[in-house]
Structure formats: structure tokens, C-alpha cells
Fold these 3 entries.
Entry 1:
Amino acid sequence: MDLRHSFDKTPNWAFLVFFAAITLVLYFNALGYPFLFDDIYLIPDNQFVKSFSLGKIFSSDVFYFNSKAGYDFNDSYYRPLQLLSYAFEYRIWNLNPVGYRLDNILLHAANAFLLFWVIFSIFKNKLLAFLSAVFFCIHPAQVCLVTFISGRSNLLETFLTLSSLAVFIRWLSAKKAAYYLFSLSLFIAALLTREGAVLLIFYQAVSLFCLKEKRKAFFSLLPYCFIAFIYFSLRKIFMPCGRLSFGNLLGWRSLFDFLFYSQSYFWQLIFPLNIKEAVFSYPASKAFFYLVSSVMFIIISLWAAIKRNRTVIFALFLFFAGLLPVVGLGGLIRYMGPVLSEHYAYNASLGFCLLLAYSCLVFFKNLDLILKVVIAAICSYFLILTVSVNRYYKSEVSFYRYALSMGESNKIARLNLGNAYYKEGDFDSALREAKVLIESNPRIWDFYLLAGNAYKEKGELSLAYDQYQKALALNPHSYLLYNNLGNIYKLQGKYDQALEAYERSYSASKNPVVLANIIRLLIDRREFDKAWAACEEALENSGDKAGELVNIGIYWAQAGYSQQAEILFKEALRIDPQSYQAMQNLAFLFGNKNDFDQAIFYVKSALKVKPDDRYLKAVSERLTSLKKRKIK
């Protein structure tokens, strides 16, 4: 029995199960990886996600809070459904990255199945559809999106776009209005995930051509075009998240960038990234390979047009249309480097994998054994590379070292590497990276921020102060800098200046971390009325009210005001009965007052929430021992 016949007999649901299984196995080790890169900005640092602020999610760019910090994110990343997905997940997973990354893995598997379904629906060849989807599913270029939780926008966009296309194709045969309306709804949802979803209209057009639909069927695309026009008009004119600029999409530079990066990403989909960067580091070799691939694409395109080979036309169209979003982004791609910008190849890889699968089936059409060997070799190649690349994402330090190894001049990778060292407590390494960055470009404010943070932790407060002042001269609107200056003033005993810096930071950002610093300072200054007023504001504005109550309660307990702390911890428990932090701190409070019955009650309650916590077990044993001594 040949391969094609055996696949024709396999039910479609079995393919969905297969893609889910292989993706889970391939990325299972990534479930335990921490938040990386933009993940931190979009989830732990995003108060709209924590508070489930629906109005803010739909009226702000995804980097709203980081723009307040002084970072320039162009204020045009409108991704409300991406943030909405995080907001739902936060209710379940809190800040545990496992759940968020699991959803990414399942979305990628679903995209592989949708690619299978679309190809099979158009070309009626299950083996071709299956091979295309498998290559897409296991390709190493997908690691960045599946492993970065922030890759959700691309994954969700592709899922909704392919879903809309699949339902549209179903409507073409069933002609039921419900299918058409559902496809339109999915298109709107896709646009609210990412503007690249407008590519659906191009995918529909080429699908109509491949399905040999009559010309009048193309009129069915007009409502999609109208929706896209309304969306982009709003983005251009009004959207509170920021306005899209279309001026940079036209011109010779944009055309050159598109042609250049279409060849660059093509070879990136063939070679391991480290080999590609090594080979293409020589201008002559880069020119040679790009010339070869350009000529190859021209020949294939002409042959497909002459032969009216709809499969090849569809594959080429998916590849080049999938890269249209890079138009005008040449500067950003060069700034981010090959690793951080690899996600732009995700949609293009749909066409690449279809073309690769079709080539295998055509070249080895009557050589079943050789075909199996070739497919096994390609799959093994992709799997090995995917597993190899995936291991770099296990920590921030290993990932940014990997990104930096692909280009020593990559400033964003070096800056993030320095920040990763800082988080791990390796302040000397963080300072070393900051000095390299400042020397390379002394006009970037966050290079000085990193240096100041490292000096502060090393206890060199005057040097930290100088670095923060240099950063402020370049970016006087960053609340982070004023907050960090407040920390320096506080450590120097300059409480008035510290309070002034904190208040200036909070007025610019309304950031709860800054407000917590104000509360702590007011408690230290014994200005309890002002501290309570600040506490009430924190509770009113916090997205995580139970967590804020616990933090504020700890401040009061440290100041020796256990009664106020007890009230706050109990209120936290009322809001969140599963807050083991509140239970743990109540156990400490009652233990310090020798009320061991209450202390043991709360620590046992905490153990019910976290039964494997060794620290809580040790506290429980200690309290039980102290209670026995008291009885004796």
C-alpha cells in the first residue's frame, strides 16, 4: 500500500490528535521556562491584564505601561485579543508561565491542523496536506513564537486567519449564510489580534483561483475589504493606542527591503541560524546565495504560471504574502537581529512547507521507499534543530547569549543580557555589558539605567546617582528613573528628596510598585495617616488587590504595627481565600504573639494550598514544637 492511499483512509480528527501530540512532546521541556523578553512587559508588568480592565485593553497599545516607563515602542501595537487571552489566563495561572506557554503550544498545533485542512480542502491530497503541516509543525523557525509567550499575537492571528479561510472555503461548497458570517466574524477577531490578518483577503483570492471558482465569486471578498478599510482607517485616524503610518510602505527602499528579506528568510528556513549567519557574513557569499534563490523563484514562478500549476502558485503566494508585513520594517529587523526577528517568518513558512512537501512528492513520485527516506531525513533534520534551538530559551541569560552570538553588534540582545545578569545578582557582568553599550552609543538612556542599577546593588550609590542623572538628561519622562532615584535618596537618608522623587514617578505612571515604595517610606517616617491614605489608593487601583494587601500588611508588620497588618492580611484572605501568602504571614504574626493555636491553624491552611512547600512544613513543625514547650 502506497503512502497516499494509506493517508486517504485516515480520518481528519486523527491528524488533529497527531499534531497536538507531536507539538506537546517537542515543546514539553519549554513548559518550565520563565517569562522571556516581551513576555515580562505584556504579563507581569501589565496592570490591565491583572485587573481585567476590558476598556483599557481595547483602547491602549500592548506596551502602554512600558511607554510610561520611557521605552519607545512606537505606540502602535494594537493587540486587544492578545491581551484579553492573557487576562483570561491570569485568572487561572496567575504568574505561572506554564499555562500561558501550554496555550501557545496548543495554538501552534491547531495552526498545523488548519494548514492541513485548508490544503486538503483545496487540492484533495491528504498526503500533501499532511506533509506540509508536519514540516510546519516541527520547523525550528517556529521555536521563537511557541516558546515566547509574547508570540501569542502571531499564533492567534494565524489561527483566526486560517480558521476564517477554512470556514470561507466551507461556505463556497455549502453556500450557507452562517458559514460566511462566521468567517467574517473570525476575520474581525483576527484583525483585533494583529493587523497582519489583512492577508486573509489575499489568501482567499488565491484560494478562489485554485478552486477554479467563477469570477463572480470574487465579489464575496468585498465585505472583507470593507472591514479591512474601516479597521485601517480607524488605526490611521483615531485609535487611542496609536496611529499606523503607511508612508513607509511605499518607495524603492521598502521594495528593496521586501526583496532582500524574502531571500534572507528563505535561507533562514533552510539553514540552521548559526550556519546561515556564518556563511552569509561574507558579502560575496550572501550575494551569491540571494542571487541563486532569486533566479530560482523567478524560474519556478514562470514555470508555474505557464503550466498553471495551482499548487506551486498557492505555495509561492503564501510564502511571499506571508512576508508582506516586513515591508517598511527593515530598520527594526536589523535592530532586533536574526533571532529576535525570526517570528516574521511564521506565516511565510506556511508556503515554504507546502512547496517543500510538494517537491518531495513530485521528485520521488514513483519511488516510494526513497520518498519515505527523504521525508524521514527532513523530519529528523527539523526535529534535531528544533530541540537544539529550544534549549537556548531555558533562561534569559542563555537566550540572550544565543541572540548575541548571532551578531555581536546586537544592542537590544546585549542590553537584555545585562538586565538578565542583573536579575540573577551578577552585578559585575551586568555592569560590564552596560559599559560596552555606553561606549558603543552614549545617547541611549536605558544603557545608563542598567549601569545605575548595577552600581546601586554594588553599594556604589554616588556612581548610581550619576548614571541615573545621565539617563534623565536623555529621557526626562521616565517614571523608572525617578523611582530609582528615590531608592538612592532613601538609602542615603535623604527622605524628603526620596518622597519627592517617588511622588513624581507615581504621578507620571500610577504604578503600584512606586506607590508601595511611597507607603513604605511614609511608614518609616511614621506618617501613618498619609500611609493609610496611600494604602486606600493602592487598594482602589490595584489589579491584584489581595497581593497588594499582603505587601502593605508586611510593611506595617515590619514597622511593628501587627494589629493593622492582621487586618490587612485577613482582608486579603476574604478577597482571595487561596492566598497562602496571607495565611503564612498571619501564622508569623500569631506566632510572634505566642498564639500558637492560631499560628498553626493558618500555616496548615497554607499547606492545603501548597502541600509540597518544604518551608511551610518546617514552619509548621517549628510552631508545633514551640506550642509543646509552652504547655510544659
Note: The radius of gyration is 28 Å.
Entry 2:
Amino acid sequence: MQSIVNIHQIVDQIERQISERPEEGTLPRAQVEALDVVYHALVFNHHPRGLALWREALWQRRLPEEARQAVVEMLKHVSGAVAHGEAQAASRICNCLQIFVDTILGDRESCDPLSVADEEAAAPN
């Protein structure tokens, strides 16, 4: 049950990141990551309106319900696979999803994975 709560918290955060993006200029890394997750979820679910839904998220700054459900389903898949020992389940879809695995499993419950993406981008290499 805890992973389901975490999944919905992650999706809520993705939705916030998409809606809070700036009106103009470049997108911060967290927003790019959020849009990337939406894209991969739509592809993962073979959604027939995937491109239209992704464009709506990008241009209208909102996560359509169909896209939200696709993200939930993808994260449930990843959560279940990881719980069964498939540590690479997220990276088989895309490496961008690996950041969510700890949060889904509850290891970093209070951590915002999209903020971590911004922090990692800002860190010197």
C-alpha cells in the first residue's frame, strides 16, 4: 500500500512540475524530467493519443487524466518489478526513471525526486 501512496505522490509532483514551468525561457531540469516521464509512460502504455497528450502537457501546462493514468500504470509496473527483484526494471524503460525507484520503494519517502534532478544538474562534475 505504501508504494501506491508514493506513486500517487510522485504523479502529483510531476503534475505540479508541469504546471509550474515558466511562461517563457528554457525549462528547468525538473520540468524536462517531468515531461520525459510523461512521454515514456505514454510510450510504455502504447497510448493511441500519446503524442497529443504529451503536447497538451507541454503547451497547456497540465497533465491530462489519460496521461496521468499512463504514468501511474508505468510506475506500478516498475514498483512491482523492483519488488520482485528486477532491479533494472526502470532503466529498461528509460534511465530517467531510475531516480523514482527509491521513492517508490519508500527508501526516500520525504524526498522529492524531481528536486533531486535539479540538485544533480546543479552539482559540479
Note: The radius of gyration is 14 Å.
Entry 3:
Amino acid sequence: MPRISEETIRRVAEATDIVELVGSYFPLKRTGSTFRALCPFHNEKTPSFHVTPARQTYHCFGCGAGGTVFRFLMEYEHVDFAESVRRLASRAGIAVVEDAGGLDDAQQSRRRRLMSLHAEAAAWFHAALFSPAGTPARDYIKARGLGAPEARTWQLGYAGPSWDELIVHLRGAGFSDAEIELGGLGIRREGATNLYARFRHRLMFPIRNDYGEVIAFSGRLLEADAKSAKYVNSPETPVFSKGRVLFGLDKSKRALIEAKTAVVCEGQIDTISVFEAGVRNVIAPQGTAFTPEQARLLSRFVETVVLCFDSDRAGQEATARSLPSLLECGLSVKVARLPEGHDPDSLIRAEGAGAFQAVLEASKDFFDYAIEKTIESGALADPSRTAAASRKLGTYLALVKDPVLRDAVSGRVCARLGIAPKSLEAQIKQAKTPRPVQAAATRAEAETEDPIRISEGVAILCRLAIQSPEAREWLATQKEPAPTALGDGGELLGSILTYQGTFDSPSAISAYVTTLPPAMERAFAALDVSRPVGDPLERCRLAWSGLAAAILQEEQETVKARLRQPGLTREQMTDFHKQILDLRARLNELLPPAASA
């Protein structure tokens, strides 16, 4: 793995305020000296997620998730430690320095090269859009109601008709043919040696991850051509997986969090038009239906999804295909009914943003929408069609996890379609639901190791060792019993005592926490190291003596029990008596005689 210098980690931790970082993803509410929110790592109704600025950590008292700014980014963005450092370093404008002799991980190196490749290509396409050659693409976006400001905001571009102009440019920028091909920007015909450009004579949409980095492209055909696909997209690459990306999320995250609702469109143009019309909480899947990964990603930010797909058959099918993933993530799903023949973009151009806003406000819960569609189709006049409709709704109802909500919706379905409740209930039970998807699943929840528990006494020693260099130094000289023998959490105390760095600032503490395995990091985050303790060295001695004495007393009782065993030889009895006397002497050194008797 990459060896990022300790100095870089410390500087990044020092420059990153955890309240500001976490608050950029979802709202935090100040409560005394901490900030609270609903935990993003598990479903809950009462906030148990605490962010403590004094020690620059977060901790959830519900699921146990916790750590520093690095751990938060790792769990929330699903990146490794090195990438979390690099992202926060970029955010703070800090250069990442590798330790001398450290070798970069091959995958990380490849990823950085591919990100640079896509950034270079996006800039080249964008410049081409505003060149004389880009006139066809500018005319197209103008006809769709978009101008230069929108093109610059979304970094739209133009891929010219040349087979190799982009390839030549990327080679000149220092990228190899292997990198260009791996990134999906170049294609090599079977048996051929030369690359040619994947995108030609198309309006180019950069596809970004939710952090704002360009990871792929989608190119729209500018002229009708029966032999060419309307859209050509980047293939799956080491930095791009179509089923894990939501178009526009990098721009709409804040609006999604504030609205708690996502407006979902089918394509890039619709998404851009809706966003620029003032509805900022909008995204689009990279395809015509949600994958479980996309639904899980969206569930980080919102509670409700409004599907705003086209009113044609394809749009209705996309709605049906999206439901399982969305419902299984616990999202409430609504459907917006667009006027016949319109998509969001055309409606906004024809009737204005107000008309589209009215469509959103009139959106209905999916089940009510499905009931209305069933009634409108005339299915109630045909028992077999009614049964088919109820079976389909039963399949969807089986995905609703909240039993109260499921019962309420089932009642509406039965009442309006004239179905016996027992029949619908049987269909729900028989429904074959897809494999469950964890809502807001995280690495912290998925990890296999048991959570580390810390006893009260060990927790006190950990706090004192962090707050007081004298207490830490004194504890390090106590060889028996070893930290791991003092009780639950002793391994964390041992780690604190053997750590070579300091704990004199939040950034120094963050640097230490990055050395811990995830389970131990969560245990550390649960410690309250912000409250100062009077006379820490004396308090440390008393706490350690109490724990050590408890261990010796337990050993003494064990030896006494062995002494009472029948059939002991004189030598065995003598040995046990010696052990008891030795343990009593050691207890007398720790505690007053009355306490150790």
C-alpha cells in the first residue's frame, strides 16, 4: 500500500474540521459541546450520531461506527485510507508526500493516471465545443434550451469526427496507448495495432463520481443515423462502473440532503434542464433503471424518490425495474406523471419551470399511481387481469419493510381493486423478493470482527494516558499485569502506551487513530478524552492499582480453590500455600492491608 508520510497525515488532519466535513454531507445540529444527526450508517429515528469537535471524532451510540475524518470518508465514500487522505488533502490544498523508499500501490497509481486521463479528455472535449468545429454541438444544445453558461457549468464537450485526433492529443499529454485503451477512450480492432477514438461527432457529457471527478463519458449522436447508437457510453473500467454512479450527484448532494427527496430523470439532458430550471435535487441513473448499488448510494442522502421518467412505454418499464432496489433500501417512491409526449426537458421548454414544478407537486405514491393505472386500463372488468395486477402489486408490497406502512398500503390496494385482504396477503407471502439490500450499508457494519468492548477501568486509563504524558509514561513502566490482562479493551491501552507519537492536539490524535484497525478505531472514538481530569498521574496510579489488585485477588481465589481439591500431595499443598503468600504480598504492595486481607 502507499506509504503516505506521517507529516502529511498530520497536516491533513490538522487542516480538516470534522464538523465542516460531516456537515457537507448532511445537516448537523449542535447540542452542547457536540453535534448530532441521524446516523448515516444505519437506519434510526432518534439521533445517536455524535460529532465531537474537541477531539475531532465521530461516534454512533446506536451502531458503534466511529473514528476520525479519515475513517468517516472511508466509510461514507467507500474508499481506502490512502484515498481518504488524498481526497482530504486535495480539499485542503495540501500536497501528499510519500515517505522515502515507499512504493506506491499499483492500483492506486493506475487509478490516479486514469483520473488524470479523463480530466485531460474532458478539458479537450470542452475546448472543442467552443471551437469552430463544435458548431453542430452548440446548435444542438441551443435547440434544447441550453446555452454557454450551462455548457460551462456541466463541462459539456464535443468529440469531432476524427478517428485519432483525441488519441494523438492524449499521447502528447503523456498517456500511453495502454492507458487510453484501459480508460475506454480508445478502441483497438481485433488484430490491429492502432487505436481509434470511441467517441466521434457526438455531444459529450462528462460522468463524474459524487466527489466531482470525471470517471467516464456519455456521447450523444448529433445527427440521425440508423446505423449508429443514439448514445455511446464509456465501458466498465477500473474507475467506472455504470451501476454504481448517479449522474449529477456531485452537484445536487446538498440540495438532496436539504429536500430529503430526489427527482430522478432518465438522461443527462433532462437532468441538466431540470437542475438549471431551479430544481436542484435531481439526478439520473446511468441507464434506465436503478441498481441496488445506486439505490444504496442515494439512500445516504434522501428518504423519498420521485421517478420522473418519460411517459412512454419505456419510461413505465424503467419505473417498474427501478422499484425493487429503491423499496429494499427503505426509500419511499413516488411517480410524476408527465403530459403525454413530454419529457422533463421538453415540458420545461414548452411551458416553463412552473409547469414542471406542478407535475412534481402532483406526484403520487407509487402504489396509488399503480392502482390508478390499473383502473384506467380497464383491468377491473376482467378478473384474470385484476388477479395479474394484484400479483404484481403483491410482489412490490413484499419489498416494503415497514409492516405498518405495508398494511396501510395493502388496505388501499384491496379497497380500490376489490381484492380480499387474505388473497393479497397470501400473494405477498408468496412473492419472490430479490436478495435483500442493506440500507446505507457500510464497511463498518459489514466487518466480521466482533466490536471491541472497553471496561470502565481500562477506559479511564486510556483517557489518562492520552491526556497526560506523565500518566502515559508511568503506565508504560508497569510490566505486570500487562495491559491486555487488565480487562476488556486492554489491547487498545497497550496500543496507546506503545505508540511513538504524541496526543497533544486533535490532529496528533487523528494521526494515531489512523494506525488502528477499524474495530479498535471505533472503540477509541467512543472514549471521552475531552474532559480534563484533575491530578491525572495520581488518578492513573489509583485506577491501575485497583485493576491490578482485582486480578491478583481473582488469582488468589483460584489458588485457594485448588488448595481445597482432595488428594493433593504435601508438595502440591506447599506450592499452593507459597503462591497464596506471594499473591498476598503483591496485594499488600498495591492496597492497604485491610483491603487485601
Note: The first strand starts at residue 29 and ends at 31.
